[in-house]
Amino acid sequence: MEKEQFCRYVVNIERLLRIVSILVRQRGRDILTDFDITPPQFNALLHLDESGAITMGELCQKMYLACSTATDLIDRMERNGLIERSRDTTDRRVIRLHITERGRKIIGEVMQARRRYLSGILTKMSDEDKTRLIESLEQIHEVMMDGEVR
Question: What CA–CA distance (Å, rounded) separates 81 from 129?
Fold first, then answer.
């Protein structure tokens, strides 16, 4: 493949990924307003759901947040009944964050709403196109996870 053609592919793919990402993020924010939760709060819930009971420091690393920012976020989430803090059973100095039942319920409802949105879009695509899309996204994901290409 000639370099000029490859460059056109790169430009077009980058533009389309950026546009799709923006649209998905905007729709995701719209969905969250129905549940009275902010995007950072929902992201924190997803990290906690994925990682289990983690410390504030671990959450800060996963979310790339300063600890003061994360503390404010977690304080609001605790007041809203989305998470709880508890002392670690092996080291009482360590505080672990846990999702409450209310937090798990919100995750499920938000994910269901997101999937309904995506389902509406995918019904407009053929099965063959959906399969190719999945394969292409999996391939991009694999390459990205193998190491950063510069």
Answer: 42
Measured distance CA(46)–CA(67) in Å, rounded: 18
Structure tokens at 85: 């803090």
Sketch the domain layout of the chain as residue ranges: 41-146
pTM: predicted TM-score of the whole model, two decimal places: 0.82
Q: What average pLDDT does this structure show over 111-129?
A: 96
Q: What is the DSSP string of 66-97?
A: -HHHHHHHHHHHHHTTSEEEEE-SS-TT-EEE
Torsion, Cα 97 59 143 108, to 10 degrees, reads 40
Q: CATH number of the domain at 41-146, out of 3.30.565.10, 3.40.50.620, 1.10.10.10, 1.20.1260.10?
A: 1.10.10.10
78: which 2 tokens? 């605790």
For the segment 118-123, the average pLDDT, to the nearest whole number, is 95
Q: How far apart are CA 142 and CA 146, in angstroms?
A: 6
CA 31 to chain centre: 14
**Helix residue ranges, H only, the chain:** 3-33, 39-51, 56-63, 67-79, 101-122, 127-146
